[in-house]
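Progress report, Aim 2. The chain analyzed during this reporting quarter is listed below.
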Amino acid sequence: MEDNGELEANVSLKNQCPIVEDYKKVYLSMTYSIVFVLGLPLNGIVLWLSWCRTKRWTCTTIYLSNLMVADLLYIATLPFLIINYSLGDQWPFGEALCRLVRFLFYANLYGSILLLTCISVHRFLGICYPIQSLAYRTQRLACIGTGTTWALVILQVLPTLVFSETGFSDNKTVCYDLSRPDNFSHFFVYGMVLSFSGFVVPFLIILICYSLMIKSLVKPSEAQTGLGTAARTKSIRTILVVCGLFTLCFGPFHVTRSAYLFVRLHATKYCPLLSRVSLAYKVWRPLVSLNSCLNPVLFFLSGDSNRSRLVQELWHNR
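Predicted structure tokens for the chain:
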């Protein structure tokens, strides 16, 4: 996930448990550069196809378009992170951009999770209750769902504008990823609540939906047989991609962050343990940004028409 320069601990903690982070200059700069190079064109193409080349928007198109907007807003901040880490974790862009970059990272992360949850619930209703749910699978309700999602996300991540700020450490200006060391106990509470409400609850909803969907797809009843092979294949693709996103990006990030928050607050005297969880968290932190590259895959797997439209546009403009 995102991580501009940060003051990882106060002076006393650094003296007790010195943590070597020389790897950040190369590893984080390279990781964010890859996400920027891949994510910008992928999300741009999907958004262009949705806005300019889609005659009739489906509920899935509405959710996915909002997902691409969230990705692009975050990807726009990556050049600042790349420069920050290239300079050796030094933040030259001021307080306002520090807060904005942090805010957009978390907004993208939890916006992606909630929008994927909306897509999963929509697919679940279409597979398990295709007739009964017709009144609930409409464009109007999809728009209301995305609006509600954005409102919830903003409320969830608004505190990051308070916790994230610039500071001075080791003769350089840094941008806190979490919070100032003297405010870390407050951030610990917020971080745990955010992980539960922004990740654990949506993940449980997705697991329930997909468990019931798989049961329905494996042993379809008469109500679902009208969906046909194409619809079942599309649903299986959605299941695989969303589960892949949670497995590769969201899950490890939240596990390592929670462990890091706990150890840093309650077990700082165990230096080897603190060093290991710090390394694990900071290795996974930028990898969560890969969801910005993988989200467009959902668009192209959501239907053959999306892939054929892209091929036609590329062929027409070659």
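The longest strand covers residues 166-169. Confidence is low (pLDDT under 50) at residues 1-13, 222-226, 306-315. These observations will guide the mutagenesis work planned for the next reporting period.
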